[in-house]
C-alpha cells in the first residue's frame, strides 16, 4: 500500500503536517500573550427550569485577540490542554466565575444563580486541583454551593479513584458536579453510579436529532429516565426549538439550556436579558 502513495502525495502530507505544527505553535504563542494581556472573556448562557425561571448559567470561554474576530473554545482549548496553558487559563476561568458569583450574591434578583464551569482533564488530574479551587473560593469569598463543575466522560476514564476522591473533597465544601455531554462517551453504568454527581447533561447532539432519528429520541428518553432514577438533575443542552423543549419536558426533563432561550453572552448583555419563552402547556 505504501508503494501506491506517490512521492508528491507524501510531500503533500508532510507539508500539511508542517502547516499544522506551525499553526499550533502560532496558537500557543498567541495564547501565552492572551493570558498576559487578559484577552479572554467569559460568556454566560442561561439555564432555565421547567417553570420558566433562570436557575443559573454555564460559563463559556471566548478569546478576543486584538483587532481579530472572536475565537471559539473549540479552536483553542485543545491547544491549551496539550501545552499545559489550560492550568493558568483554568484558574483564570474559575476566579472570574467566582467573582461573578460574589457580585450576583449582592443583589436579591441574582443571589440564587449558579455558575457551571467546564473543567478539562489536565486540570482535574493535576495534583493541586482541589487546593487551587479551594484557594480561589477563599480568595474571592464565593459561595461554594453555587459553583458547579462540569466534567466529561472522557476525563473519567483515567485515575477514576483519584478523581472520585477529589470530587468528594470538593463536594464536602458544597461544590456540585455535573457530567457534560452525557451519552457521547463510553462510560459504563457502573462508573456512572460510582460518581458523586448532582447533574446529568444530555448531549446536544441527541437533542438536535431527536425529531429526525428515532434512535436519538430513544437515547434522550433513556438518559432522562436514568438520571431521574438515580435522583440526579437532568439538563438538556442544545435546545433550539419549542418542539424539542416540549418533548423533553414530556419525557420528564426539568432543566433546559440552548439557543431557544438564549445564546451565550457577555455579562453586560446578560444584565438586560429576559426569558420570553412560554412554559410548556402540555398535560
Ligand atoms: P459544552 O460544555 O458542551 O458547551 C456547550 C456548547 O454548546 C457551547 O459551545 C454553547 O455555545 C453551545 N450551545 C449552547 N446552546 C446551543 C444550541 O442551542 N445549539 C447549538 N448548536 N449549540 C449550542 P462553545 O461555547 O463553543 O463551547 C464548546 C466547548 O468548548 C464546550 O462544550 C466545552 O467543552 C468547551 N469549553 C467552553 N468553555 C470552556 C471553559 O471555560 N473551559 C474548558 N475547559 N472548556 C470550555
Ligand atoms: Mg459544558
Ligand atoms: Mg455539553
Ligand atoms: Mg460539547
From TrEMBL:
The domain of life for this entry's organism is: Bacteria
Residues forming coiled coils: none
Please state every residue range assigned to the domain named EAL. 24-278
> What protein is this chain from?
cyclic-guanylate-specific phosphodiesterase
State which stretch of the full-length protein is shown: 561 to 843 of 843
